Amino acid sequence: MTVNVHRLALSVLAMLLSAGCAATPPAASSSSSTGTGRPAPSSYEEVAESLCAAWQALDTAVGNPDTGEGSQLSDRLEASAERHDAASADLAAAPIIAELEAARQHAAHAGRWEPAAEVASQMDRLLLAFEAMITAKVEEARGTPEADGQRALEQAGGMEAWAGTLQAIQELVAQRPDGPPRQCGDVPIGF
């Protein structure tokens, strides 16, 4: 969606890769989502499954933060904001928020396995920052003065959460059992 976020994300990713680290997705902070209703994960594989689901929901909601490519959903919201079409923006934002909330639930579930708690915490912070950005985009469409999705993301701690997620995932992936990482479908991340 926003170039500044994506440039920072690419810079952090490049820094991690140049240090010999694998790419890692954003992590979550204190989560109001608890992932209840499902038993806590008891293995790395179960955690990887939940984190992949969270990452896929993030990708569906807003696109790929690594490349700056928006999703179909976020592109619709962006177009509504540019047209100042509040009704269309409200409709476009609803499924994005639903996907981000689903991602929070998946991350919270993963975080119930102690080694993944920091990833879940950082990812939750990131997802909440994206929710703030989406809410601000709707306000942009309404013509609300000072509404700015990029600024809302940054003020909600999105940049720090992105860096924290990448770091926490790197640390979690270091604990992965031998073998190749589990790829997360068509999303360019693995655990």
Describe the structure.
With 191 residues, the chain is mainly alpha-helical. It has one domain: Up-down Bundle (A middle domain of Talin 1). The chain is built from 7 helices and 2 strands; from the N terminus they run αααααααββ. It has helices at 3-18, 44-62, 72-83, 86-111, 117-142, 149-155, 158-173; strands spanning 183-184, 187-190. Strands 1-2 form a two-stranded antiparallel ribbon. A hairpin with a 2-residue loop joins strand 1 (183-184) and strand 2. It starts with a helix and ends with a strand.
Secondary-structure blueprint:
Layout: H1 3-18, H2 44-62, H3 72-83, H4 86-111, H5 117-142, H6 149-155, H7 158-173, E1 183-184, E2 187-190
Antiparallel strand pairs: 1-2
Helix pairs in contact: 1-7, 2-4, 3-4, 3-5, 4-5, 5-6, 5-7
Summarize it.
With 191 residues, the protein is mainly α. Helices cover 64% and strands 3% of the residues.
Domain module tally: 1
Distance between the termini: 25 Å
Q: How are strands sequenced across the largest beta sheet?
A: 1-2
Write down how many β-strands occur, each being a DSSP E stretch of 2 or more residues. 2
CATH level-two architecture: Up-down Bundle
Overall 3D form = elongated
Helix content: 55-70%
**Gyration radius, in Å:** 16 Å
What composes the largest sheet? 2 strands, antiparallel
| CATH topological fold name | A middle domain of Talin 1
* Low-confidence residue ranges: 2-33
- What structural class do you assign from the helix and strand content? mainly alpha
- The number of helical elements comes to 7
